[in-house]
Amino acid sequence: MSALLKLQGVHTHIGQYHILHGVDLEVPTGQVTMLLGRNGAGKTTTLRTIMGLWAASQGTVTFDGQPIAGKPTPDIAQRGIAYVPENMGIFSDLSVKENLLLAARNAGTAEQMDTQRLEWLFGLFPAVKKFWLYPAGKLSGGQKQMLAIARAMVEPRRLLLIDEPSKGLAPAIVQNLIEALRELKRTQTTVLLVEQNFAMAKALGDRVAVMDDGRVVHHGAMQALADDEDLQHRLLGLSLGAHQ
Predict the structure, then answer these.
(1) Cα–Cα distances in Å, from 114 out to 101, 148, 220, 225?
(2) What confidence tens digit (pLDDT) does each residue in 112-164 have?
(3) Does 34 reside within a domain?
(4) Do both 28 and 72 map to the same domain?
(5) Which superkingdom is the protein from (predicted)?
(6) Among 91, 128, 188, 228, which is most buried by a count of CB atoms within 10 Å?
(7) Angle at 112 between CA 111 and CA 115, to 5 degrees
């Protein structure tokens, strides 16, 4: 399986702090790659570096064989990469419809949006349709997360970067999110997903990379990690089995 995204020897500094210490990471085309690790391991910094929100001070980032490190974030997004940050980035004063329209670069009005794709999104995330005209700020946390992911998918994307989508959500909402992302997975969309919910990681991941202290210290099949409790304890300090 060829890598759609590849990081080699990536270092990132934020002010005086050296956060990434030579990250090597490959994200295969058409698969879901989980990026796991303890808090502070560098997972969010990795996503933000890929998107150009923080500049890599050393190393290479290539997307579909083309270098993207050092390019402006809008140029990176234009290549077909969408980013769902941990804080979701929802425009609270705008309606659900207006939030989606902002992300639909080829549509000037809601009527110009791809109707077939919208219906597909409504099937994945019924709350988006139900609260179409509501201010996004009045949605629940789970509904905002659904909107954030739907907004990233309102146009076809080649790669989705999603940062901890289940954080702070009730278990029932997390299960709904897993089902929606499973449907997305069936479309062979390439996803790099940071997640602390290990049941979600096991349910969705094809591949996994584990970070520690700004480096990738393990990579392989997600199922192999899920089946090896000793490896889970060594890499993460806990067991996936305790988080079912």
Answers:
(1) 11, 18, 37, 39
(2) 888 899 999 999 899 999 999 999 999 998 899 999 999 998 888 999 999 99
(3) yes
(4) yes
(5) Bacteria
(6) 128
(7) 75
